[in-house]
Fold this sequence. Notes:
By secondary structure, this protein is an alpha+beta fold. 22% of the residues lie in helices and 22% in strands. Strands 1, 2, 3, 4, 9, 12, 13 and 14 form an 8-stranded antiparallel β-sheet that branches. A two-stranded antiparallel sheet has the order 5-6. The chain starts with a helix and ends in a 14-residue tail after the last strand.
Amino acid sequence: MGKFNETVGNFPEIGGEREYAKEIKITSGISNVFRLPDGEDSFIEYTISWIMCDDNVIRPFIIENEHEGISILGRMFGDRKSFYTGGYFETKKTKYGAVPTYQAIDPELYTLMTEYWNEAYKGKGSAKPKTEWIYNAIQRTPEIIENQNVYWCLVNKHTKVVRFGQKAMLALSAVMDNDGHKIEEYDINYTKQGSGAKTVHSMMKAGPGIAHAIPGLLSLEETNYTRYPLDEITRIATAYYCLKHIPIKIQRMDRAMGTNFFAEFEKQAAIEQEMWEKNKINKTVTNNTPPTNYQTVAPEKVFDDSSIPFTGNAQPSRIAAQTATVATPIVTPPVSGRRLVIPSTPVIPANTILIPCPTCGQQIPEDSVTCPKCGDKLLEPCLQCNNLFSTKLNICPHCGAIYE
């Protein structure tokens, strides 16, 4: 019994799901053909909460996954397997049915967390966490790019990712029961009908009459397609990210429950900041010898908390980072007397540390004070020691200055 069968076999009662994946778009009423090249057990399981943030923008917060555990925010919401016991979404059984424990204390907040309006699909959304699964997939169906049909995976020699909710995983299980569990050996035709909790998921083996389907085993070229690192895509949200976007909601939930999770978020964010500083120093030291006519420039600051230790019962929150080398030409007067012209735009080929902007998601240099795309301010100098630190921290990690 493999990982897939164990997962599906342990599903609780079916609940609603919402499609949000951007990578392979499964549009209602339109079939999509793809191959899961790494087999049935090659998924990563994670739990995600979509929250209407303090600025009225809906953002995703991954609160738990199979390789890091549960985050502070996940614990604040409560034990999902036991009516969210001990958390904000806790319900208690009464003679009138299940009653939310903290709804009456702050009804407006409870509505914002459980029944906000999602303009994207013209329906109500909820911050209550949902478990989802993500696979690398080779998409067969072409997509329209600049008015042309493009087979993206074929052109880029790279997989996409496809995300499934519980109903989709059960539909996939039905395919395997009928056509065999070696799903890497055949294409799948996936169609959805409806939306929200009423969505019907239909999957079947893509036969020879299905457009774009490719029968038989994967080619050697397809087997060698570059994969996405699923463990990085599904990393849990950092304390920094939470304090950046929902500090008011965290404080209001604390007041309703009589807890102080906000202080725990601040403590974890300070640890993230400290590790960020240490990683910055470590990443500037390299044993790689640069080319003779280039000088390695120290990478800019990154908010990379990939090695943050556990604090209390909380597991580390992380933001995935990429690495590349920033190199700047050195002007050396040539013997011939000709001048070397330095490009006005610096070249950034490899080893520059890039991180996603916590507001817009654009990949930006790690030491950016403001995001060059959305303009959001990320860092500011301490009024006491003048060192840069996160705009969401109340304590300067360099000198200990406290801010209101």
